[in-house]
């Protein structure tokens, strides 16, 4: 059982028991004051201290509002914990927020089930496979784009009879253009100009790249 599960179980046991919560203002020199004072660094001790005590479980300084007993919380679920800067950060939901969070997670699970056409317990493995496929496909795409750019560069430089050579690529991207420009880095080419236009009249935004070269 992980740390978050242990924390949730302990909290839920206390909620079921309905432990009382009692706020009080501690005075310097009292047992309550001395127990809490050790938690403060020298010079940071407040002049007055409001202490909230959970019957037989915990006692801490706090200035917030509180329930009369833990049963009023109904339920508590620790979402995650993180150790940072010498302290443990705890993310949790309580009361009706637990139900809302559960409903949100359940809706997301139903959506993922439809998208993957698989049971919830298979979502993780399906996601991992998709990420691996995407990584492989992206690598192959970059390799093919580089080969295409090399072919286009050879074609452009071979058009020696033209004073100005213009190249247009529909739905191009900046990465492809940079690769092409790198391959066209020949001393015989004196000028490159780039214009990128975006059409909003199509269902999807499309990018058009224009590359012009002028020979000296």
UniProtKB/TrEMBL annotation:
Annotated InterPro entries: Thr/Ala-tRNA-synth_IIc_edit (IPR018163), tRNA_SAD (IPR012947)
Swiss-Prot/TrEMBL GO biological process terms: tRNA aminoacylation
Organismal lineage: Eukaryota, Sar, Stramenopiles, Oomycota, Peronosporomycetes
Threonyl/alanyl tRNA synthetase SAD domain mapped to chain residues: 49-91
GO MF term list: aminoacyl-tRNA ligase activity; ATP binding
Top-level taxon in the UniProt lineage: Eukaryota
One Pfam family named in its UniProt record: tRNA_SAD
Protein name: Threonyl/alanyl tRNA synthetase SAD domain-containing protein
SMART domains: tRNA_SAD
